[in-house]
Amino acid sequence: xxxxxxxxxxxxKIPHPEKGEREKRYFATNCPALCITVQPQPSLKKSYYAHxxxxxxxxxxxxxxxxxxxxxxxxxxxxVEEVMAEVKDGIKKWK
Length: 95
Fold this sequence. Notes:
This protein is α+β, with helices and mostly antiparallel strands. Helix content is about 20%, strand content about 40%. The protein has a five-stranded mixed beta sheet, with helices on one face. The chain starts with a strand and ends with a helix.
């Protein structure tokens, strides 16, 4: 799991994966529910997602944890501060 402080300059510095690799996810240290997804070449897109975990109790009583993601916007459409505010406001509603 890669962590990064979510600022405009730090996000701009993130390199795109090589062609044929999967997208990479970076989790923000200054906003606990923010994730930045970096697409491989040739798309070269970076996107903001909200992320959280969900616990599912199975019929035998065991717990299974799954990660959930909600798309927010592409990098550059809105400022990082606006995105962090939206994630902080909406995370309780999305869980």
